[in-house]
UniProtKB/TrEMBL annotation:
<keyword id="KW-0732">Signal</keyword>
<feature type="domain" description="Solute-binding protein family 5">
    <location>
        <begin position="97"/>
        <end position="231"/>
    </location>
</feature>
<protein>
    <recommendedName>
        <fullName>Solute-binding protein family 5 domain-containing protein</fullName>
    </recommendedName>
</protein>
<dbReference type="InterPro" id="IPR039424">
    <property type="entry name" value="SBP_5"/>
</dbReference>
<dbReference type="Pfam" id="PF00496">
    <property type="entry name" value="SBP_bac_5"/>
</dbReference>
<dbReference type="GO" id="GO:0015833">
    <property type="term" value="P:peptide transport"/>
</dbReference>
<dbReference type="GO" id="GO:1904680">
    <property type="term" value="F:peptide transmembrane transporter activity"/>
</dbReference>
<dbReference type="InterPro" id="IPR000914">
    <property type="entry name" value="SBP_5_dom"/>
</dbReference>
Length: 231
């Protein structure tokens, strides 16, 4: 059992979901920025690589350090069809183009990984190539979700194109799976595919500080997070 600690935040999303379910009058209070959130998860951490793991024992402690291409709408998390952009711009079109065989995403400009490296379409392509078309010997627990995908490409630095072999209603939900965190292409090229099992360099709302196995995982708010004013 490990303790997860985030400093420099008020866990508004978690707190609100609890208060709504309880019908609490505390909803009238104004959320305050700052503070520390501690919570406990009773699961062993097999590695830091969300692309290969299947347990929520990695989602809970490590997804806050990363971004996704698209995600479940955090304002409507119970909906199975409501998805919004994270590192992309605009809205998520479930229909796509070319009869549902092509999906194009424009990547937000100005996003940086926590090491200061700019995030571009090439990082998104490298990430999904690792997930969908992993080299021999590289585990990918979500490869089977993307059998309909023919290719992933970046025609320029801020455009990502998915081409499908056939239209599939499961493509968008698969794309929004929280395990599909965006890795830096530079890290993959420089350090290889095993590096993320023991190292973290994301672009999410929190920056990784340390992990003491069996004790805690600690992170702090990332001040340059691309969703301004959050967390």
């Amino acid at each position: 059992m490990e303790r997860l600690k985030f400093t420099g935040l008020m866990a508004v999303g978690i707190v609100l979901s609890i208060m709504i379910s309880m019908g609490s009058p505390l909803l009238a209070e104004t959320p305050k920025r700052g503070g520390t959130l501690n919570y406990i998860f009773g699961s062993k951490i097999p590695s830091y690589d969300l692309h290969r793991e299947t347990t929520f024992g990695v989602i809970h402690p490590f997804s806050p350090y990363y971004s996704l291409l698209i995600r479940v709408n955090p304002d409507n998390p119970s909906s199975p069809t409501d998805f919004v952009c994270d590192v992309c711009e605009g809205t998520v079109d479930p229909a796509g183009e070319d009869g549902g065989k092509k999906y194009t995403y424009k990547i937000r400009r100005g996003i940086e990984f926590h090491d200061g490296t700019p995030l571009t379409a090439h990082d998104v392509v490298a990430t999904f190539n690792k997930i969908i078309f992993p080299p021999e010997g590289v585990p990918s627990s979500r490869k089977a979700f993307f059998k309909m995908v023919e290719s992933v490409s970046a025609p320029d630095d801020f455009t990502v194109v998915f081409k499908l072999e056939y239209p599939s209603g499961s493509f968008i939900p698969a794309l929004a799976t929280p395990f599909n965190i965006i890795y830096s292409k530079k890290d993959l090229d420089t350090h290889g595919y095993e590096w993320h099992t023991k190292n973290i360099n994301g672009s999410g709302p929190f920056r990784f500080i340390e992990h003491q196995p069996g004790a805690f995982v600690r992170g702090v708010r990332y001040e340059n997070y691309h969703h301004k004013g959050q967390p």
